[in-house]
Design brief:
The complex is a heterodimer of chains A (317) and B (650).
Chain A (H helix, E strand, L loop, with lengths): L1 H19 L18 E6 L3 H18 L2 E6 L2 H10 L4 E5 L3 H10 L3 E17 L1 H6 L25 E5 L8 H7 L4 E5 L3 H13 L6 E5 L10 E2 L23 E8 H4 L4 H8 L4 H12 L5 H11 L1 H8 L2
Parallel strand pairs in A: 1-2, 5-6
Antiparallel strand pairs in A: 3-9, 4-7, 4-8, 4-9
Chain B lengths: L1 H34 L14 H8 L9 H21 L13 H15 L2 H16 L3 H31 L1 H16 L2 H12 L3 H25 L3 H9 L4 H12 L1 H17 L1 H5 L6 H10 L3 H27 L7 H23 L1 H4 L8 H44 L2 H16 L1 H17 L2 H31 L1 H16 L2 H12 L3 H25 L3 H9 L4 H12 L1 H17 L1 H5 L5 H11 L4 H30 L4 H4 L1
Helix pairs in contact in B: 1-19, 2-30, 3-6, 3-9, 4-5, 4-16, 5-15, 6-7, 6-9, 6-12, 6-14, 7-9, 7-30, 8-9, 8-29, 9-12, 10-11, 12-15, 14-15, 15-18, 15-22, 15-23, 18-21, 18-23, 19-20, 20-30, 21-22, 21-24, 21-27, 21-30, 22-24, 23-24, 24-27, 25-26, 27-30, 29-30
């Protein structure tokens, strides 16, 4: 008993001694930087390319404009909902979603478009590079039936397997397979994680794989997937979903902001509106985040330092 | 006398029932070859039915701006933010939380000691120190704040409901159905609408967690109250106690330890929701896991998952110790010690508010990156070494078992499947099995996702059989051997709370994107709960019974099969039921690794607005499958329980 108490007292004394030498909380309080920019809510969709956009914009908004940026990690659908409930102000990379634009921009008038991000999105069917090398004609869709046997798996019921991805993305693959009379079965992988893992395994162990994928994507820094040429896209060829027999359209990835934010006159809105870069720029930042394991903020800082002139045009300098 | 007639009936019934089951199955297979491909109710990936479109149109009907929901949202938001301000987020105009890490560790260890014992206090301090050293202090505290909020609110609702369901038979029946719904309806189905009612933020995340986590507490409270011996209640009544007195003086004290098990399971369930809640911006470890997975960084995801497991183990052991602690007032010595400890805690809190080293967890002793590195190295090694072999296993199981079963279920006309299942339910469980089966199958047809339901049913059946087999083996082993039990528990806890997202990547590498991968993930998730319940059941078999069997020279195998398993049958029924429910609650996760079918439909409904209705219908289909299988197994078990087992006869 006594020993215990002594031990307690001794520990307390020891703690007091070490503690009093330490730095006090709030000693180096930074001066609060708050100009007229205020706060805005930025949704962060779950892919690295988006994170690159978000990192750079919030770095510039915080450092140059003195805004407070509240980042919210949300799936796309929920972010769109956020425009109507006032919890999301800015979406920095939107992939099409004509139905949601119709609902939230045209019908409910709670969101507005804020122009292109300059990044071009591509959706299509891809094979790992080793296959393109070994079977050079595989990139033409007409020869896909010839190779269908290669792509058979336990899931594809005797046909070739076409692996589809994250349900968030638009897909016409079932219709495409039917309308191009391909001897393939669409198998849902269900997530981007599953797709990337499948490609990684396919390239490493030289396994055949045909799958739905998209650019820009950080994974291209690791494996340069090769796109299959489907019948070329022409405006209107995808009008009726069940009858699609052509490639996916090129996507111009754009920005969406809430109506409230657009009308607020905040300098942050001008920044978001002027923000425009290229696939290479986004890839560079995404690479730093995904491969070099930098924090988004550090990656953004590095990129901004090297590209000050681009940033200046966003700021209207 | 009773036992003699009982065994006679068994001799007559047993063979007849299995013969009938066999005949039904043979007829089914024969009919399948004739009727295959007719009326299979196929629905393509992007196709919807009128019901799905109707659900789509009415999604926003219970929208925001409702005074009732707003009141709940504001109250819950304030509560969670208060907890976050206390332990995780910079608050009250200071750059650090109100209580720094030293204060949190001191308070937690003190509480663990005061309510439990000194062993769990040491464990608490060590556990919290460990997550700090992992470099995840703030994330862990965010997760802890959210979990504590969700658990407290769950208990606020669940304990009174559980007591009510324990006292009233009618409430019990309704509650069972609602709880089945809450536990099997995939979270993805209500995650998006929840953000509409409760906005994006802590409230929606807490309430999503609450819906999933509250059922075990209700179930076990009701179960505890119902199993208090009627004699005790009678005695209290005859001594003139009022209803209220009987409840507070007899029923509640006598059911305390089971209620604590319920609280325990609620905590586990809440922690297993951490990653899912992160999809609607719940702060904490879930975010770390999801971010790491975007770049397939298994190591970092594992590190965060490990922190969740550590928190789970600490909370589990503390609540268990608190439940086991005899209810008595502290003696003088303990009171003095408690007071002294309290002063120490106050000093620690003061330090953590004053000095930076006690406020922010020192970052120079981080082992998080080493853990991450080791984890990814191990995964890579396993993938490289076992990669080919595992693909072989997958193909063998898929082609040998899964594909034939699935072909039988999906290829037969829907009415044939319905007739067969209802017939089997009737043979195995009587009308108690047949009626729910018929109702559920009818509703399944109405959901419009019949074909997908049958695909999911095939995988679910296979996964459940594996879960029960493995769970029984492990459970018997752990139930008979204390040392095994001590070693196996943390592994089971890890299986239950490690976010499935963490092991999906290695599983994908080992088995590719396939239904088999989904089955494997479901098995990992469901085996722990089955094992735990079986082990508890085996341990509860009276020592005298086992001794008696041993003394007449029975072998271990005889003791297990003739004594322990039959006596623990009630626990085994519960274990099968929970194993099944846990398998079903992984259907959506399975959809993310290639299982397709209902899981994929639900995930797609969460991601694409035009598929919302279909996702909701698929979610309901999962619930229907769960209710149907549960009712059939319960009815079958009830039927066998009416007769003394063969073990008793010898």
């Amino acid at each position: 008993m006594k020993k215990l108490r002594y031990a307690g007292v001794l520990t307390a004394v020891a703690l007091a001694l070490t503690g009093c030498g330490g730095e006090k909380v709030g000693a180096d309080k930074p001066a609060a930087a708050g100009k007229d920019c205020g706060t805005f809510n930025l949704t962060v969709s779950p892919w690295v390319g988006y994170e690159a956009n978000a990192a750079v914009v919030s770095y510039v908004a915080t450092k140059d404009l003195g805004c407070k940026v509240v980042e919210k990690n949300l799936k796309e659908e929920i972010a769109w909902q956020g425009f109507s409930t006032g919890e999301v102000d800015v979406n920095l990379e939107n992939w099409g979603h004509e139905d949601l634009k119709q609902k939230y921009i045209t019908d409910d008038k709670v969101a507005v478009e804020a122009g292109s991000t300059g990044v071009k999105g591509v959706i299509g069917w891809y094979v790992p590079p080793w296959m393109a090398k070994q079977y050079p004609d595989i990139t033409d869709w007409k020869s896909l039936n010839k190779y269908a046997g290669l792509f058979k798996t336990s899931e594809s019921g005797g046909k070739g397997q076409l692996l589809d991805g994250d349900p968030s993305y638009v897909t016409n693959d079932e219709a495409l397979v039917k309308n191009l009379s391909l001897n393939y079965k669409v198998v849902q992988s269900g997530s981007e994680t599953a797709l990337i893992q499948a490609f990684r395994d396919a390239e490493k162990n030289k396994k055949p794989l045909l799958a739905y994928f998209y650019e820009p994507q950080w994974f291209f820094n690791e494996v340069k997937l090769v796109k299959i040429n489907l019948p070329a896209y022409k405006t209107g060829c995808d009008a009726v979903p069940a009858k699609v027999a052509c490639d996916y359209p090129p996507y111009d990835l754009d920005k969406i902001v809430s109506k409230k934010f657009a009308d607020s006159g905040s300098p942050a809105y001008d920044l978001v509106k002027n923000f425009k870069w290229t696939n290479e720029d986004q890839n560079a930042v995404a690479r730093m985040i995904a491969v070099d394991k930098l924090t988004p903020d550090a990656a953004a800082e590095k990129w901004v330092k090297d590209n000050q002139s681009t940033v200046n045009t966003w700021l209207g300098k | 006398m009773a036992s003699i007639t009982g065994s006679v009936e068994i001799e007559v019934r047993r063979p007849r029932r299995s013969v009938v089951v066999g005949v039904v199955l043979v007829v089914w297979v024969a009919a399948y070859f004739v009727l295959r491909g007719i009326d299979t109710l196929v629905l393509g990936g992007q196709e919807t039915t009128a019901l799905h479109r109707w659900l789509n149109d009415h999604r926003d009907d219970v929208g925001q701006g409702n005074v009732f929901f707003d009141a709940i949202r504001i109250a819950v938001d304030h509560f969670v933010v208060l907890l976050q301000n206390l332990v995780s987020q910079p608050s009250f105009d200071r750059p650090v939380p109100a209580i720094g890490w030293l204060g949190v560790v001191a308070i937690s260890a003190y509480c663990a000691w005061a309510f439990g014992n000194w062993k769990v206090a040491v464990l608490t301090a060590a556990g919290l120190g460990f997550v700090g050293v992992q470099g995840l202090w703030q994330e862990s505290m965010d997760t802890l704040a959210l979990t504590v909020a969700a658990v407290l609110l769950s208990l606020l609702v669940a304990i009174p409901l559980g007591i009510w369901a324990g006292l009233s038979d009618r409430a019990f029946k309704v509650a069972t159905l609602v709880l089945d719904l809450m536990q099997t309806l995939p979270t993805f189905v209500y995650l998006a609408p929840l953000t509409l009612f409760f906005a994006i933020g802590p409230a929606a995340a807490t309430i999503a967690t609450l819906i999933y986590a509250a059922p075990p507490a209700v179930r076990l409270t009701a179960h505890a109250i119902r199993s208090v011996p009627p004699e005790s209640v009678e005695a209290a009544r005859s001594l003139g106690s009022t209803r209220g007195q009987t409840l507070t003086k007899v029923l509640l004290p006598m059911s305390r330890s089971t209620v604590v098990v319920g609280i325990n399971q609620t905590i586990m369930a809440a922690l297993s929701m951490v990653t899912v809640a992160a999809l609607i911006d719940a702060p904490g470890l879930g975010q770390t896991v999801l971010k790491a997975l975007q770049t397939l960084d298994v190591g970092v995801a594992f590190n965060a998952g490990l922190a969740i497991v550590v928190l789970a183990i600490v909370l589990d052991r503390v609540t268990t110790a608190a439940g086991d602690r005899p209810w008595r007032t502290a003696n003088r010595r303990r009171r003095i010690l408690l007071a002294a400890g309290g002063v120490g805690v106050l000093v620690a809190v003061w330090f953590s508010r004053t000095y930076v080293w006690a406020a922010e967890f020192p970052s120079q002793i981080g082992i998080g990156s080493q853990i991450a590195k080791v984890a990814s190295d191990v995964t890579n090694w396993v993938q490289d070494v076992f990669g080919g072999f595992t693909y072989g296993v997958r193909d063998a199981v898929t082609n040998g078992l899964l594909n034939p079963l699935e072909a039988l279920l999906t290829g037969s006309p829907w009415w044939l499947v319905t007739v067969v299942v209802v017939a089997l339910a009737a043979v195995l469980g009587g009308w108690r099995g047949a009626v729910p089966a018929a109702v559920c199958l009818g509703l399944l047809v109405a959901t419009g996702v019949w074909q997908d339901s049958m695909v999911t049913l095939a995988s679910t059946l296979l996964a459940t059989v594996v879960v029960v087999a493995v769970g029984l083996a492990l459970g018997v082993w752990a139930g008979r051997n204390r040392r095994v039990d001590v070693w196996i528990r943390p592994v089971l806890d890890a299986g239950q709370t490690m976010p499935p997202f963490v092991y999906l990547v290695p599983f994908l590498a080992l088995f590719g994107t396939s239904r088999f991968t989904a089955i494997a993930a479901a098995v990992v998730f469901a085996v722990p709960v089955t094992t735990k319940i079986v082990a508890d059941g085996i341990k509860a078999v009276p020592v005298a019974t086992v001794e008696a069997a041993n003394s007449v020279g029975s072998s271990s195998w005889q003791v297990i099969s003739k004594v322990q398993l039959p006596v623990a049958r009630r626990a085994i029924t519960l274990a099968v039921n929970q194993g099944l429910i846990y398998v079903l609650s992984m259907v959506v996760v399975g959809g993310l690794v290639g299982a397709g079918a209902l899981g994929y439909d639900v995930a797609a409904g969460f991601a694409q607005s035009e598929l919302y209705g279909k996702g909701l219908a698929a979610g309901l289909a999962i619930v229907l499958l769960g209710v149907m299988l549960d009712r059939i197994t319960q009815a079958a078990a009830r039927r066998t329980q009416n007769f003394p087992s063969r073990g008793d006869k010898q």
